[in-house]
């Protein structure tokens, strides 16, 4: 499971590298509104799940399980949204949808952080708030993408402000 290579003194897991490449491909595919977005999302999430388990990052592993479920939901949602002759309707979120997304981000982060603090078997006590924010924010961004809301880009950028430094700190 630890298969990888050395790059600039860092051990790079093949599962992590390939999963992240597929995640970048998802961005490109989503911009083109292709249904391939979702199976590629699922494959990337499964590879990143393996990398997270290998790196002993259970919060990230749970996030990848959630991404698998959201990839299936997104695939079904986009399939329903493209049945007419007009293709997938990509649009900005309404003011009400943005308020709901933000409220879920805040409340979800608090609830998940409390779970991470009290569920010691998850081993995320060293950064429960950051992990909770990444977990909830990632779920919201993927959900917004599945609903064809352009606002998911903003949510992803906000999540990555915390997620990228935390991934480096975790050795991923």
Automatic annotation (TrEMBL):
Membrane topology, record value: Multi-pass membrane protein
Top-rank taxon: Bacteria
Compartments where found: Cell membrane
Protein name from the UniProt record: Nicotinamide mononucleotide transporter
Keyword Cell membrane found: yes
InterPro entries in the cross-refs: NMN_transpt_PnuC (IPR006419)
Transmembrane segments: 12-31, 61-78, 99-119, 125-143, 150-168
Signal peptide positions (record): none
Family stated for the protein in its record: Belongs to the nicotinamide ribonucleoside (NR) uptake permease (TC 4.B.1) family.
Record keywords, A-Z: Cell membrane, Membrane, Transmembrane, Transmembrane helix, Transport
One Pfam match: NMN_transporter
């Amino acid at each position: 499971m630890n298969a990888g290579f050395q790059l600039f003194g860092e051990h790079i897991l093949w599962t992590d590298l390939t999963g992240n490449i597929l995640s970048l491909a998802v961005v490109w595919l989503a911009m083109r509104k292709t249904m391939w977005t979702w199976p590629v999302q699922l494959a990337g999430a499964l590879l990143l799940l393996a990398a997270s388990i290998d790196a002993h990052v259970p919060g990230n592993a749970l996030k990848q399980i959630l991404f698998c479920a959201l990839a299936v939901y997104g695939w079904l949602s986009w399939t329903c949204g493209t049945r007419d002759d007009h293709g997938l309707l990509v649009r900005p979120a309404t003011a009400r949808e943005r308020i709901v997304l933000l409220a879920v981000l805040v409340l979800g982060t608090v609830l998940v952080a409390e779970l991470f603090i009290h569920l010691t078997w998850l081993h995320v006590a060293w950064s429960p708030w950051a992990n909770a924010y990444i977990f909830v924010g990632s779920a919201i961004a993927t959900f917004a993408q599945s609903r064809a809301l352009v606002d998911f880009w903003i949510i992803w950028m906000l999540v990555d402000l915390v997620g990228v430094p935390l991934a480096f700190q975790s050795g991923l």
